[in-house]
Write a structure and sequence with these properties.
Blueprint: H1 2-21, E1 25-31, H2 34-42, E2 47-55, H3 64-68, E3 75-82, H4 89-98, E4 107-108, E5 111-112, E6 118-122, H5 125-140, E7 151-154, E8 158-160, H6 168-172, H7 176-192
Parallel strand pairs: 6-7
Antiparallel strand pairs: 1-3, 1-6, 2-3, 2-8, 4-5
Length: 198
């Protein structure tokens, strides 16, 4: 009898460990400079981690300098690991579309080039459907007064950016760029998405 109980407990523990291991999902967004956008998603409840990196280009393991030329075809993106029990993909899309200008092609503010394009790299058919539906609704309601040009593309290889790009705002909050460009975005986030913040 003890052996049966031990076997059942072991099986139950393994099942729980497997279930816990599958609690997170990935979302990947490009919405301009990843220094700004990383700081936004790091503040959301349910977001486990945010990595700045490059996706959608023609070469493997690009450097920041190569991506900045615009010739590699990569976008500066965020790979977001999140717990769908705490924040939904739809919630992440809402923050994505309300935290940048999705109507400007290859430009966000002063940043210009294909590396700053607005793009959703989807990981599942469900993510694709939600992103396309949300984009269609924004255009149907003329939410921005202009057409949303955000690309919705299948996820491609993601390359983590150099270490000095990670946690940029956290590590450089007093830098002029952070105070002038990133801080206003975070203040807007706190007003619009207060209930979703950690």
């Amino acid at each position: 009898m003890k052996k049966i109980i031990l076997i059942l407990l072991t099986a139950l523990t393994l099942n729980q460990a497997n279930a816990q291991g599958k609690k997170t999902e990935k979302a990947t967004f490009g919405m301009g400079c990843f220094w700004c956008t990383e700081a936004i998603f790091q503040k959301l409840k349910g977001v486990v981690s945010v990595k700045s990196g490059y996706e959608g280009g023609k070469i493997a393991n690009p450097t920041y300098e190569e991506v900045c030329t615009g010739f590699t075809g990569h976008a500066e993106v965020l790979e977001i690991t999140y717990n769908p029990m705490q924040i939904t993909y739809k919630d992440l899309l809402e923050v994505f579309w309300k935290s940048h200008d999705p109507t400007t092609l290859n430009r966000q503010g002063a940043d210009s080039g294909t590396q700053y394009r607005s793009v959703v790299f989807y990981h599942t058919p469900e993510q694709k459907a939600l992103a396309e539906k949300y984009k269609a609704e924004l255009n149907a309601t003329n939410a921005y007064g202009k057409k949303v040009v955000t690309a919705v593309e299948a996820a491609k290889p993601f390359y983590v950016a150099e270490s000095y790009h990670q946690n940029y705002y956290k590590n450089n909050a007093d830098a002029p760029y952070c105070r002038l460009v990133i801080l206003p975005k975070l203040e807007k986030l706190e007003k619009v998405f207060k209930a979703k913040l950690k």
